[in-house]
Design a protein that fits this description.
It catalyses: (S)-malate + NAD(+) = oxaloacetate + NADH + H(+). The protein has eleven helices and 14 strands. The protein binds ligand NAX.
């Protein structure tokens, strides 16, 4: 049987954590033959650590055959020791009266500390997924704080946007969601993201031709996907948790186990593709194989798409410029 791998999850006592840990421990992320050791990280606060203990009691009570060990941590320097996969879910939410700059600064502090800790103690091949918002910029900060690790091993979660887009297209076309191929989401995990179905196919047929409605694309589809997070909060009184956890599982599973040529969306540091400046943590269509992702290159970008990409890029570079002095 396989040797256990170490999976660190921050914000482990939060609502996404509660929807995520049980699925990782049951083998849905890394495979039904891959034992895992969970390294669970929460803030040192007594209440958070106590809540984390409660989640661990429930994990024990599931008697998962693949759960080879479990640890609770309050410090990333111990929590990330030898970790192979790190899911950075915990972040500082925007409090009442908090300015955007304050939010960026508070998160910059968290993600510089976590990046430095990964740099110091994690496996040299650690795969990092940042979920906590602002996800792209937090991933950028962690990457910049970990100069000894490979920059391509830091990623941000755009998969929820990708899955939301797929589900809207399935509803519009009346086709099964699993039949959609070659969907892409560009840019920031924020309402500015650009979900792009120009290349998408269903059973070999063009989705763009099937829908054939640029007004729907612009006035219904993009706003619906972009504002979906807010619509969930409005309906549920809480932000997306199960769907976010599901997207995190999808992202890590596809990165680790491969997509067999299918496209998925990941937020990854640019190498200059599509004119996105180097290191900007940007949503791109990728394929994955053997634990590596590859950005899908050479796609034609029309005028409308370029304007959408420019807008989300401007937002992201604004965020990154806002934290540069803190790195
Ligand atoms: P919760 O507030 O339920 O849980 C967050 C947990 O993180 C808390 O238990 C808190 O104590 C912990 N935490 C905070 N700072 C920490 C640190 N420095 N180290 C370790 N733990 C820390 O939030 P939840 O609903 O679980 O959401 C978590 C994050 O995901 C938020 O930043 C949220 O905005 C973000 N999201 C990102 C999404 C994406 O697609 N990228 C979608 C869903 C979600 O909104």
């Amino acid at each position: 049987s396989k040797k256990p791998v170490r999976v660190a999850v921050t914000g482990a006592a939060g609502q996404i954590g509660y929807a995520l840990l049980f699925r990782i421990a049951s083998g849905e992320m890394l495979g039904k033959d891959q034992p895992v050791i969970l390294q669970l990280l929460e803030i040192p606060d007594e209440k958070a650590q106590k809540a984390l203990k409660g989640v661990m009691m429930e994990l024990e009570d599931c008697a998962f055959p693949l759960l080879a060990g479990m640890e609770a941590h309050g410090d990333p320097m111990t929590g990330f020791k030898d970790t192979d996969y790190a899911l950075l879910v915990g972040a500082r939410p925007r409090g009442p009266g908090m300015e955007r700059a304050d939010l960026l600064a508070a998160n910059a502090q968290i993600f510089t500390a976590q990046g430095k800790a990964l740099n110091a103690v994690a496996s040299r091949d650690v795969k990092v997924l940042v979920v906590g918002n602002p996800a792209n910029t937090n991933a950028y900060i962690a990457m910049k704080s970990a100069p000894d690790l490979k920059r391509e091993n830091f990623t941000a979660m755009l998969r929820l946007d990708h899955n939301r887009a797929a589900s809207q297209i399935a509803a519009k076309t009346g086709k099964p969601v699993a039949s959609i191929r070659k969907l892409a989401v560009w840019g920031n995990h924020s309402p500015t993201m650009y979900a792009d179905y120009r290349f998408a196919t269903i059973d070999g047929a063009s989705v763009k031709d099937m829908i054939n409605d640029q007004v729907w694309n612009k006035d219904v589809f993009l706003p619906t996907v972009g504002k979906r997070g807010a619509a969930i909060i409005e309906a549920r009184g809480l932000s997306s948790a199960a769907s976010a956890a599901n997207a995190a599982i999808d992202h890590m599973r596809d990165w680790a186990l491969g997509t067999n040529g299918e496209w998925v969306t990941m937020g990854v540091p640019s190498n200059g593709e599509y004119g996105i400046p180097k290191d900007v943590m940007f949503g791109f269509p990728v394929t994955t194989e053997g634990g590596q992702y590859k950005i899908v290159e050479g796609l034609p970008i029309d005028e409308f798409s370029q304007a959408c990409i420019d807008k989300t890029l401007a937002e992201l570079t604004g965020e990154q410029d806002g934290v540069k002095h803190l790195l």
